[in-house]
Design a protein that fits this description.
Belongs to the pectinacetylesterase family. This is Pectin acetylesterase. The protein has about 400 residues and is α/β, with parallel strands linked by helices. The protein has a single domain, classed as 3-Layer(aba) Sandwich (Rossmann fold). The chain contains 12 helices and 15 strands. Strands 5-2-3-6-4-9 form a 6-stranded mixed beta sheet, with no helix packed on it. A hairpin with a 2-residue loop joins strand 13 and strand 14. The radius of gyration is 19 Å and the shape is globular. About 10% of the residues have low confidence.
Length: about 400
Amino acid sequence: MKLLWVWVVLPFAFAQLVTAFFDFNETELSLIESLEYGVSKINYNPLMVGLTLIHTAGAKGAVCLDGTLPGYHWHRGYGSGANSWLIQLEGGGWCNNIRTCVYRKKTRRGSSTYMEKQIPFTGILSEKAEENPDFFNWNRVKLRYCDGASFTGDSENKGAQLQFRGQRIWLAAMEDLMSKGMRYANQQFYTVTSLEACFQEPQELNALVMLVYSLMRKVDVSGGHTIRSLYSGVVGLQGVQHNLPRICTNHLDPTSCFFPQNVINHIRTPLFILNAAYDSWQIQSSIAPPSADPHGYWHDCRLNHAKCSASQLRYLQGFRTQMLNAIKGFSMSRENGLFINSCFAHCQSERQDTWFADNSPEIRNKPIAIAVGDWYFDRTAVKVVDCPYPCDKTCHNLVFR
């Protein structure tokens, strides 16, 4: 059995991207927000879990963008799972300049003042064995994301009254959870959404699961570098460079080391990657963002894959190939695991309908929850890659309106 770091590139953590960044309209933003907590028609009555503020964090300077206390949602484990912990790190995009960070600090992505007091626990966070067969009775924690740099920054801007303290939030949260029993854990499983905390590898663990991984494409459809420009701003503004892995920054610049594909091969612990080959967030934000598509050629395609032209689908097939090539070295390790399905989706672990349901996505008749459990508990090796779109008929593809 593996001790586990679960990185879930969150079902949606799916990025509540700052409006100013990628020009999402209100309808698109509302849909993204509705994806975040994975509520679906198959789970009308999910467990609601309250927000716990970390009261010791203030003295450590571990605060959200606006200076408020950070927090998490925790449902206590029991029985065989009483000493097992699943920690999900919330995702939600980034802010790369003063303007977007000031906007962000007035939302739940930058202030606990605006965070929901209760959120539903579904999918990998569900407390029902029939919905979450391997982790239902574990201690399950969702750490809220309110810093804007994937829990890695440590800086401030006094003029704009902004605190970039993601690294301190991470440390304060871990210390608080340790005091509540996690120090006695015999199993830990960390999930992250998007890129969140992918640099925070717990030294004492011997396995890590990253549920949902996104290869960040460096060039968009116009040949520009939308995502690199964004990352450069995040790294420089929030003091991220000081907390990036030295093994990466010794040979690459800090911005390059914020790209997950440049980090995963340096992770020492066994890792599981769950991802959609046609990641919806990638299509929206780094492949065909509005800024790279001024004439709207990609507008319909990026909202609904069924409206993509033959040439656009070929382009997206190229993205899939690029992603598979990027993780080729990773997949050669006998200890690592893979589940790459050919869906237009993002962060499929927290939504109940994609994590584990009667009609959830499968590869070779194996749904995501069973694949992750099989790998984690050493029931069988799991390295499955779907055939290219449109072969998979089990997908729950995202369509934006």
